[in-house]
Specification:
Elements: H1 3-13, E1 26-31, E2 36-40, H2 53-63, E3 69-75, H3 86-95, E4 102-106, E5 112-116, H4 117-120, H5 127-137
Parallel strand pairs: 3-4
Antiparallel strand pairs: 1-2, 1-3, 4-5
Bound molecules: tetrahydrodeoxyuridine.
Tetrahydrodeoxyuridine binds near residues 23, 25, 41, 50 and 52.
Amino acid sequence: MYKKLIEAALEAREHAYVPYSGFKVGSAVLMEDDSIFSGCNIENASYGATNCAERTAIFNAVSHGHHKIKAIAVVGDIHNFTYPCGICRQVIVEFAESKEIPIIIIKSKEEYIVKTMEDILPGAFTKIDLDKEKEVKNV
Ligand code: THU
């Protein structure tokens, strides 16, 4: 079902720039118009400047004018399921079409699990919270 998205994440993983951790990650996002954007993790000698694969994929989509994610796939360790880190979960929710979008966590083309956004970041803080506050203040 998610064949193309999974293949895009696996292919992006091959481009991971990981001279420090050696831990390759690839990700791909399916957008509202069915376009797919991918990305890999990109490390830096100043470790904190590292960008995770999920955020690279999402920033790639946003840079091409797409803001609504219908599904996201991620592959890190191919022997274990690698879930998105906390920062990436927050960035995914910013652009997720709904709380129910599938988060496809891949080991290989054949082996993957599917979670939802709500599963991995329950009670997420989003722009809705900011809008509610504005309403109360009437601004
Ligand atoms: N990494 C990701 O790309 N995505 C995640 O969700 C978890 C961590 C990367 C960052 C770093 O390059 C390497 O994995 C080890 O932390």
